Amino acid sequence: MEYTPVDIDLPDEYDFKYGPMEDHKPVHFPYNPSAWITETGQSPNQTNLAGRLSNLPLDVFWTILDECLFRNGDLTLQHEELHTILSLSQVDPRSNKYVEEYIARRKPQHFLRREVGEIETLPYNEGDNGESWYPGDALDFHMNDIDDFLGRVFQVDCPSCFAYLLNHCEVDIGNCIKSGWSFAALAIINKSVKILEYMLNHPGSFHSLSILLLGPANINFPRPTSLGLLGKFGNKEYLEQILDLVGDSLANLRLPSVIAGAFTADDLLWLCSYITPNQARRLQALGVSVTDAHESETKSNSWHGAALNGEEFLDYMKLTSRMSPLEINKNGDTPLSLALSEGRLDVVKWFKRNGLAEVSQEYGIVNEITLAMQQNSGESTCMVEELLPSEPGTYISSIRAAELLHRMVLSLQMEEQEVRQAAEDMDYDFWRLMSESIAIKKSPNIICHRNGTNAALSATVTAGSKIEIQWTTWPDSHHGPVITYLASCNGDCSTVDKTTLKFFKIDAVGLIDDTTPPGTWATDQLIAAGNRWTVTIPSSIASGNYVMRHEIIALHSAGQKDGAQNYPQCLNLEVTGGGSAAPEGTLGEALYTDSDPGILVNIYTALSSYTIPGPALYSS
Question: Are 462 and 519 in contact (CB under 8 A)?
Answer without folding.
Answer: no
